[in-house]
Amino acid sequence: MTQTENDSAVTPPGHGLSVTLDDVRAARELLDGVIVHTPLEHSRALGRMMNATVHLKCENLQRAGSFKVRGAYVRMSRLSEEEKARGVVAASAGNHAQGVALAAKKLGISATIYMPRGVALPKLAATRDHGADVVLHGSNVDEALAEAQRQSEETGAVFIHPFNSTDVVSGQGTIGLEILDEEPEVDTVIMGIGGGGLLAGNAVALKQEAARRGRHLRIIGVQAENAAAYPPSLAADALVPLKGVRTIADGIAVGQPGEIPFEIIKELVDEVVTVSEDAIAEALIFLMERSKMVVEPAGAVGVAALMEGKLASLGIEAENIVAVLSGGNIDPMLMLKVIQRGLSAADRFLTVKLMLKDRPGELAMISRIVSETDANVIGVDHTRIGGELSMGDVALVINMETKGAEHSSLVLNSLRAEGYEPMVLN
């Protein structure tokens, strides 16, 4: 053991931070009998892709559909009787809302949840089903958050922050202890970041417990590239708010890091990477097809980073990886859109536009060509009206399923060989 390793064994990583391994252990005791000990599933498909052992920590199977109930329950269980009598107020796009609502129901506390307008209907309905009063406010989580804080000051209800709380961070960190119990040889853990509570709590639990066992492991955080407040904040060593966020991963669409998680993450997390919207969509489809897991976009960003080769780009040669699937609360309508986008990104969904002469047999000719390539047509739009159309012309838009990039090229080349000029729209 080197001097550096010996020092780290004596002084745990992150010594002096606001959340410690003992805090996470205490949270675990509070959660005993309250939460589900979610499974750690082996993914052979991801393992072959990564040339490593890969497991998925399935918090999408947690009560209320995400990890959020862990932190919410720990925070609320520690309220005084007088605070509990005043009730609680929170804000969320869905997962924290359901976590707070479920915790409030179990603890006998009244809860009011502020959710942005346009929130997914299943998340709205589930929050109400747990007994919480829901108020729709603002166009995003940050606006709902500000209103919830204002209402807390005005009414005296206790505000339950989704991530900027030591109790919440400690509760989320219990996932890390479960990972190490089941897979003690893990060397890399990867998960998403919104405000940072999940990543911060698990960085404390994983780094400090691994050090106690004489081991070192890496922690990688992942953000959607259109909602990535951590990279600029880490670079500036200060909280840098984004001007706006726009991502299908609504569970991590947070415009500014939390102060408490930020201090932990900058100290303990090895890397923070970003992933594209297409990568998130592809990961969601991959998890459904290969792991039989229904995961929301925010819960799939860790897998998206693996599939995009982010570890390799960082020069990381991992042998034993765990990706946290942080939630499974996805609106079926969003799922339809994400599936289409993911299939398109994987070259398995092809949309082409063709300009044709308005004469008998043209549509039959196109149908024959597509049929001979074995593509599956799932939608056709045929129109004679439009500013780009000359008299006697029609525009044909065809949506079809293909078997991948090579098959899509075959379809396009077959159309071109017959004299057509297909325009790819997706």
Question: Helices, strands, pairings?
Answer:
Blueprint: H1 3-10, H2 21-31, E1 40-42, H3 44-50, E2 53-58, H4 68-77, H5 81-86, E3 88-91, H6 95-107, E4 111-115, H7 121-129, E5 133-136, H8 141-155, E6 158-159, H9 166-172, H10 174-182, E7 188-192, H11 197-212, E8 218-224, H12 230-236, H13 259-268, E9 271-275, H14 277-290, H15 301-307, H16 310-313, E10 320-325, H17 332-345, E11 349-357, H18 362-372, E12 376-383, E13 393-401, H19 405-417, E14 423-424
Parallel strand pairs: 2-10, 3-4, 3-6, 4-5, 7-8, 7-10, 8-9
Antiparallel strand pairs: 1-2, 11-13, 11-14, 12-13
Helix pairs in contact: 2-9, 4-6, 4-9, 6-7, 9-11, 10-11, 11-13, 14-15, 14-17
Descriptive notes:
The protein has 426 residues and is of the alpha/beta class. The chain is 45% helix and 18% strand. The strands form three sheets. The chain has a six-stranded mixed β-sheet, sandwiched between helices. Helix 9 packs across helix 11. The termini are far apart. The relative contact order is 0.12.
Strand content: 15-25%
| Side-by-side strand order of the widest sheet | 1-2-10-7-8-9
What characterizes the major β-sheet?
6 strands, mixed
Secondary structure class reads: alpha/beta
Distance between the termini: 55 Å
Give a short summary of the structure.
Helices cover 45% and strands 18% of the residues.
What features would you highlight for this structure?
single chain; about 425 residues; alpha/beta; six-stranded mixed β-sheet; four-stranded parallel β-sheet; 19 helices; 14 strands; globular; disordered N terminus
